[in-house]
Design goal:
Distance between the termini: 40 Å
Strand content: 5-15%
Number of strands: 5
Oligomer: single chain
Radius of gyration: 17 Å
Largest sheet: 3 strands, parallel
Strand order of the largest sheet: 3-4-5
């Protein structure tokens, strides 16, 4: 995607687009939208994720999604995967991760202390945002080995098939009422 846009390889797309002239920025947004739509249409649940989400629901844990994607693409992805969240925060709602705004805002809306919240993410921006917001962080690696920013996470999860170990580590496995 960066190559198509003519952006540096390790750059952050959303931030780079804001620095471009209007015409080039528009072209990059079109490329981004094309790839987001393609990804949303092809979205499938990661093995074990459905069971993990059901387990959280059984435990009464509220779930929010904070994404750098657009609202339309996030909603399409959730629909494609048959998922719902209690709250959805997208790049249209406020500053995108790694800015902690979305996580802080979720804590404020739900009146939760940050340390009672857990951020699960699969990219360093998720961990950076979670750390800046003061919440506990889990880096979901999908078994990809060592990843940038992984050392900054409180926990690492390679597979949702091992989610009970994570729930134990977070002190959530035996929770019987919602986190408030």
């Amino acid at each position: 995607m960066r190559r198509e846009m003519g952006l540096p390889e390790n750059s952050s797309i959303l931030e780079e687009i804001t620095r471009l002239d209007a015409g080039r920025a528009q072209r990059c947004r079109q490329i981004l939208e094309y790839h987001e739509l393609d990804g949303a249409r092809r979205a499938v649940l990661i093995p074990g994720a459905s069971d993990f989400i059901r387990r959280l629901d059984t435990l009464g844990v509220k779930r929010a999604l904070a994404t750098r994607n657009s609202r339309a693409m996030a909603e399409l992805t959730l629909h494609q995967c048959g998922l719902t969240f209690d709250l959805l925060m997208t790049r249209e709602d406020g500053p995108a991760k790694p800015d902690p705004w979305a996580i802080t805002h979720i804590c404020e809306i739900w009146n939760l202390a940050p340390r009672s919240v857990v951020m699960v993410g699969d990219f360093r921006f998720d961990i950076e945002a979670g750390n800046a917001a003061g919440v506990r962080t889990v880096y979901f690696t999908r078994g990809r080995g060592a990843l940038p920013g992984m050392e900054k996470a409180d926990h690492v999860l390679e597979s949702f098939d091992r989610a009970d170990d994570l729930l134990d580590a977070l002190g959530l496995r035996w929770l019987s009422s919602p986190l408030v």
